[in-house]
């Protein structure tokens, strides 16, 4: 459905009133919060610096809701940077206006301004999270969202005695905004973080490098015999992580806001953007045990090789000299990573898994290059500027957001010709590939989908320019992960191995280095929805695209009219 200017103006006037009316009909409770974005000094690793925070907190505020609730959050920007917020894993049915990626569904909230986000919870249950979606501000602007079962229902497992968010992140001694700005100007890799953190704190091991006072360690107190639900979130910027608790198994029961068949494991591998719910039973000798996080580095690219820690402390433990440290996998231990991720299955067989597709998008994922500006030398390969691309298209943010342009039929903001297959087929995972394949084309290309189209996306890694895993995230949807493998995807033989019975329902998939992953979703959520790599440097370089999903035939299959949006 296309909109005339007269209709657009009328709907904008009525939009916020209509949304309030929808709240009255909401099945769950409605909660309201006021969040203020400010800069506050924090000290880690002997460095004190101002960091962007929400309500002065790092990590930011937690949201606690039940399935089907609605949350209204008024965000006031009292900092010096533009900002947007994204609710990662929240489908926001018919409401892309509050999804958050800058210049995709909204223009940023400027300093001194405010914007009210309307969070519509639908079928999500478990753990998702929220984070800034502008520049690199999400390094400190993020927090957990805990979604409990609807009132009168229960978990599909025995109720735990306690629940604890475990947010894995990074600390940069430098200014994160300046770090990415410098990298984009030089054309090279951005600096790595100085520490990995658990709930904002780096842990004891950094005392060996930094001689100042204790750098800060998160401590979780437990009672022997009790069970605890760890809500684990990888809020890190550029690295997949191994997570382990010394001498304790973890039973993973959920991922990305949906339940899975239980997986009992010593080690978790979790990619940026992913969440996992894991049961920990305090069944060991009362003592102190380290939780530890370190990088899983699938490729030959720079990474922060340090180890962040927290401490699991039993009540009434006998004093000991130091906590017990887990034996962590090697940074390049792909066998451990694969043996864990290959076990994921939905808790129940899903009758709604699409058995076929209307449209297949086969897209390469590549760290590309762009020519350096005339007369200068950049720090990328052979003096070029590092870039990234999907199907050789490097995404460029427009000057106004795509959603507004679509809704108001504003021309020359985006084009609808994102290629559904690689424009220049080659041996994607082969060796000695020609350098001519490295150069990407820049643009703002999207794919337009009719309502209810069943889409299969096959992500294909390439062996160009430092191959590695890629955590690919889709806004507005969860998708079924049907299969993955190494090498080039074979469209004849590989679909025969798809799991069409109980594939995991997730929103972020780790595409293996020099391999592929196939996902499916039904386009039943109208609006504009971003798809991108959740390595922040790759997203900054252009490894992004978007889907425009048209309205269906009824009001309930159409966009909610917009509230007053931030100006561009």
UniProtKB/TrEMBL annotation:
Its cofactor is Cu cation. One of its GO terms (biological process) is lignin catabolic process. Pfam families: Cu-oxidase (PF00394), Cu-oxidase_2 (PF07731), Cu-oxidase_3 (PF07732). One of its GO terms (molecular function) is copper ion binding. Keywords: Apoplast, Copper, Lignin degradation, Metal-binding, Oxidoreductase, Repeat, Secreted. One of its GO terms (cellular component) is apoplast. Binds 4 Cu cations per monomer. InterPro entries: Cu-oxidase-like_N, Cu-oxidase_2nd, Cu-oxidase_C, Cu-oxidase_fam, Cu_oxidase_CS, Cu_oxidase_Cu_BS, Cupredoxin, CuRO_1_LCC. It is found in: Secreted, Extracellular space, Apoplast. It catalyses: 4 hydroquinone + O2 = 4 benzosemiquinone + 2 H2O. Lignin degradation and detoxification of lignin-derived products. NCBIfam families: laccase. Belongs to the multicopper oxidase family. This is Laccase. It comes from Nelumbo nucifera (Sacred lotus). The lineage of its organism: Eukaryota, Viridiplantae, Streptophyta, Embryophyta, Tracheophyta.
